[in-house]
Amino acid sequence: MCNASNETTAKRLLEAAGEIFAEYGYRAATVRQICEKAGANVAAVNYHFGDKEGLYMAVLRFVPDAHTEKYPLHGGLNPDATAEQKLRAYVQSLLGRIFDEGRPGWHTKIIAREMNEPTRSLDTLLEEFARPLHQELASIVRDLLGSRATDEGVRLCTLSVISQCVYYHHARSVIRRLYPEQRFGPEDIARLADHIARFSLGALKEFAQQKEAAS
Q1: Which of 56, 118, 192, 214 has the least C-beta neighbours within 10 A?
Q2: What torsion do the CA atoms of 112, 114, 117, 118 make, to the nearest 10 degrees?
Q3: What is the DSSP letter of 80?
Q4: In angstroms, rounded to a whole number, what is the distance separating the alpha carbons of residues 188 and 202?
Q5: Burial of 17 (0-12, 13-18, 19+ CB in 10 A)
């Protein structure tokens, strides 16, 4: 019973902290604000997370952890899947994470705030989550570009694929105004994932052919 109560308190603190940190930022947010929102004693933060910084890091880890299992980057493919299949699965997974209707609004907001107003936690966040995400895609891109691919080419193409996915989310308020017909429901996201994958595959194949022709 005690363990269940502790887990409930920790979860309430995580949810409350996520909203407060996303709204005010790490530096301006206070432990008292968080505890009042969570209905918890101030001492509970020290008990469960050590201190304010520990709570903040737990919140940052909570966001990607909540979606990794639901949207695995390999999309449930077999290990012997083709690079083309892996790219499609990756794009579908990334868009699924970004546009997940079940995720609270503060999830995206707190990550964006951390990138714009970095704390000491950013390096940990990048190493634990962002770098593996980029490395996974870079491996797929390198396979598609072929043996003559350069590190620069792999890097630029990797960033281009990710940027396509992220832009649709970050600029969706602008996109809706410029293109009112563009929707972002589940079926729309599925079509968008297919478009980005096909568009990227076309570009990657063209780059690979150019390298072969120049050799």
Answers
A1: 214
A2: -140
A3: T
A4: 21
A5: buried
Element containing residue 214 per DSSP (H, E): helix 186-214
**Amino acid identity, position 5:** S
- Number of residues that this document lists for the chain: 215
- Residue 211 is inside which H or E element, if any? helix 186-214
Domains of the chain: 2-60 (1.10.10.60), 70-214 (1.10.357.10)
List Cα–Cα distances, 197 to 119, 158, 191, 208, in angstroms.
Answer: 34, 12, 10, 16
213/177 Cα distance (integer angstroms): 43
